[in-house]
Amino acid sequence: MGLTILSREIVNPEETLNKIVVCSLKMNLYFSLSEGALKQDGAIQYINIKKYFGNGEDDYELLLTDILSIQHSSESKEFGTFGKNDVFYYPLLATDNAPSKLSYHFSLAYLRLCPNHLISIYDWVFSLKDIEKLEQSVGWIETWCQDFQKLDNA
Amino acid sequence: MSFKKYILLLLTTLFLSVPSFAEKSDFFGKGEEVLQQAGNTLGTIVKVGNKVEYTNPAGKLLKWSEQSASDITNSINSAKNSTDVGRKLEGTVADFINSEGKTVEGFGLTIKKADNSVATDIDVLTSNEIIEIKNSYGAWDGKRTQVNRFTNSSLDDFVNPYNKKAILYIETPLTEIQRTTILNTIPNNVSLINSLNELKLILK
Q1: Which residues of B touch chain A, with CB atoms under 8 Å apart?
Q2: Which residue among B82, B104, B117, B204 is least crowded, i.e. fewest CB within 10 A of its CB?
Q3: What are A6-31's pLDDT values in tens digits?
Q4: ipTM over 0.85
Q5: Using CA atoms, how far apart are residues B66 and B45, in angstroms rounded to an integer?
Q6: Structure pTM?
Q7: Residue B142's closest CA among A130, A24, A43?
Q8: Contact residues on chain B for A16, CB-CB shorter than 8 A
């Protein structure tokens, strides 16, 4: 996935949905659900979160997200404040791509609501502390995921 | 309105209201082309111009726009220069496929539902293959059943009407445990590929 939320606990899908609706609202993002989005196991699929940048039908950045009911990682990995032996869950997954600006603002808004969670973008993992630090210094830059470590050390 | 104009308007209205004539004559440009369910097509495809409407075996309507060769080339070049890791990788793989003499027929194809919301995308399509591209094991781990939409025709998001060979491409080298986990999870008819060299060998 491009963008994934990591949590130590199982999160109720409706709770995650509430959170990302609030994030979208605060970040002035387009948010939509389709018919059939709610699956039998409680998962919510095909949520479209978009940021339009033009007037064309396809002029947008997209996070196509699925909220999962219970899906935990299949391997142990040390992620920030998560210890190597911690089981962690994926409350939300978003597409294979992670548009830089949309991912940044979504991550910042989400982690402010859920400071105990982490956000993984490809294989980079960010906590609220990380993104707040970035926000306080240079804010969003195109390569913020890749260059975070460099910026952090600067 | 004069009587002559009235008659003309009446005839025009009648003419336009007979779709079979309009379609058969192709008078108004490219007509609707219905590809039958028979043969190798799973579900039904209707094409109008470059718009494709696919009703999959689960009865769900999925829509996309056909891409021209120049659209594909431009998209691949743009992806290769993207700062988005996933997008860049997709561009690199598509470019590699082209360099192997195989034509990429679809790239980053956005699939929409009937209500125009985005349902999924197809990373790379060739004449014989449909390819899902992931950067790493971690990128696959979150949504382990994603490739099923290429092989399980009972799913709402099944999107492989021509039953092309499904490939899961993962860029970062996998450990044996990771490889085993993936192979134990994905359908048997999906090929797991872990390098461009492996991809080269499997492309028909």
Answers
A1: 83-87, 90, 110, 113, 115, 117-121, 123, 132-139, 141-144, 156, 172, 177-178, 181
A2: B204
A3: 888 888 999 999 999 999 999 999 99
A4: no
A5: 12
A6: 0.81
A7: A43
A8: none
